[in-house]
Design brief:
The protein is an alpha/beta fold and about 450 residues long. The chain has helices at about 25-30, 50-60, 80-95, 105-110, 110-115, 130-140, 225-240, 255-270, 280-290, 295-300, 315-320, 330-340, 360-370, 390-400, 410, 425-435, and strands at about 5-10, 40-45, 65-75, 100-105, 120-125, 150-155, 160, 195-200, 200-205, 220-225, 245, 275-280, 305-310, 345-350, 380-385. Helix 8 packs across helix 10.
Length: about 450
């Protein structure tokens, strides 16, 4: 007799045309970990790799099995909500009695609105690894639904609401790689290695940038410990012949002791890989105060690229609007240090903040031109500000006339690569693209040429 199954779905994200890298469904891998001890099977469907026909085939193949529920992870923007709703409609057609439960960043801040959609049977806000196992217990009759953390549902007679499910600090374990086809995520990344895999080794961020969705984690920060991380990296390198790891953590460098141990261990006994990660400029300042040779250590250990959110070239915008707690001049010194150690700097910016002037936008573009003069010439990417619910700047945007979507269906059309506010337009979108210069995979697209400096 087959065991019951839980299907976890990561709907497709519509990245920009020139963006060839995407995440493995780490949110689902983390959520799946505690489920495998519950006498059931777990299937993960990644819409970035598989199409609608494969989704229908998956559903059909499990029709005769007891499907406990189908979980969808959704984030705001990028088309993921639209893809989730399309897959949910198909699920309702093929397995109409199976409950569809939604979670993820969008649900964490708009749980009630999400729960009102006709395709949504339940929502789970907060960490899925806490709520989903309890929800499955409730489906099996082992407990009441009102005990499920973060649950909001309507059982046909009444609205059921579980206790809060806040973010929490915890140590993360190794991922269950057997649940996905790891090889299909390996990418040729010219800034790291020909066989590069992305990896998320932490959740949350301690900084307070006022536009950022990471604030919904309430500054809770959880990590894979350095030794566990190294063990996992060794396995991946050996099993899949990798030569690069690209960390997609919101900020890989918050725990500096962990980073130093990781880099030192790579130097001492490998594996010999190139690696890249995201960093806040204040991390580099802290590190240089405690570890004067920090960047030298990173370079020797294989660090080839550091991604940094600069956000603006205007000190007023950095301080008064973004809350970056660092100045343009300090960021410039950090960028100089990165370049001096022959590490590629990759810097992201945002234009179109509420209250930002045209002069301040020009300061940002001027700062980008200054960064292009460094060697190795940095990558730059310019985004258009999009208000995210649950962040301080969302409330500010409302005051400036932004009208947010009113339903989950409306949010499904929200595209953070285009103008979403009344004070931005197509011209600023075009200019932002003109100042975006990235190194892309030669096996997929022709790399962008280095910028000719003015």
């Amino acid at each position: 007799m087959s065991r019951p199954v839980v299907i976890l779905c990561y709907p497709k994200i519509d990245h920009e045309k020139d963006y060839v890298y995407y995440w493995m469904p780490y949110s689902l891998l983390a959520t799946a970990q505690p489920l495998l001890g519950q006498d059931l099977d777990v299937e993960i469907f990644d819409g970035n790799l598989k199409d609608d026909s494969e989704w229908e085939s998956l559903l059909e193949s499990h029709k005769s099995q007891d499907i406990l529920c189908i979980g969808f992870s959704i984030m705001t923007g990028g088309g993921q909500i639209a893809h989730a709703l399309r897959l949910a409609r198909k699920a309702k057609a093929v397995v109409p009695s199976v409950p569809l439960v939604f979670g993820g960043p969008h649900v964490n801040v708009l749980a009630e609105q999400t729960s009102r959609h006709e395709l949504v049977d339940a929502v789970l806000s907060g960490p899925g690894q806490t709520s989903l196992p309890k929800y499955i217990d409730a489906l099996r009759g082992a407990c009441g639904f009102e005990t499920v953390p973060g649950l909001l549902m309507n059982d046909g007679e009444r609205c059921v609401k579980g206790p809060p499910n806040p973010p929490r600090v915890q140590l993360l374990g190794r991922y269950l790689w057997q649940l996905i086809e790891v090889e299909r995520y390996v990418r040729d990344d010219p800034t790291v290695g020909r066989r590069t895999l992305n990896y998320i080794s932490s959740q949350g961020c301690v900084y307070k940038c006022r536009f950022c969705y990471e604030l919904t984690y309430q500054r809770r920060y959880s990590v894979v410990p350095a030794d566990t991380l190294l063990e996992d990296i060794r396995y991946l390198v050996s099993e899949f012949k990798l030569d690069g790891i690209k960390f997609y953590d919101a900020d890989f460098f918050i725990n500096l002791k962990r980073v130093v141990r990781f880099a030192t261990s790579l130097l001492d006994d490998g594996p010999p890989i190139a690696w890249a990660a995201s960093v806040n400029p204040k991390d580099i300042q802290r590190a240089q105060a405690f570890y004067p040779d920090f960047l030298r250590l990173l370079k020797k250990s294989g660090c080839s690229r550091l991604l940094m959110g600069v956000e603006s070239g205007s000190n007023r915008v950095l301080q008064d609007i973004v809350g970056k707690e660092i100045t343009r001049e300090e960021i410039w010194k950090v960028a100089q240090s990165i370049a001096a150690h022959d590490i590629l700097g990759s810097y992201t910016f945002i234009v179109g903040f509420p209250g930002e002037t045209e002069t301040e936008q020009n300061e940002t573009f001027k700062f980008i031109e200054e960064l292009w003069r460094l060697q190795p010439q940095p990558e730059t990417r310019v985004h258009i500000f999009a208000p995210y619910p649950g962040t301080p700047l969302f409330e500010t945007a409302l005051q400036y006339g932004f009208e947010p979507p009113k339903s989950l269906e409306d949010w499904s059309h929200y595209d953070y690569y285009d103008s979403q506010t009344p004070w931005t337009n197509d011209a600023i979108v075009t200019r932002a693209r003109d100042y975006t210069s990235m190194s892309l995979s030669p096996s997929v697209l022709k790399p962008t040429k280095a910028r000719r400096l003015p």
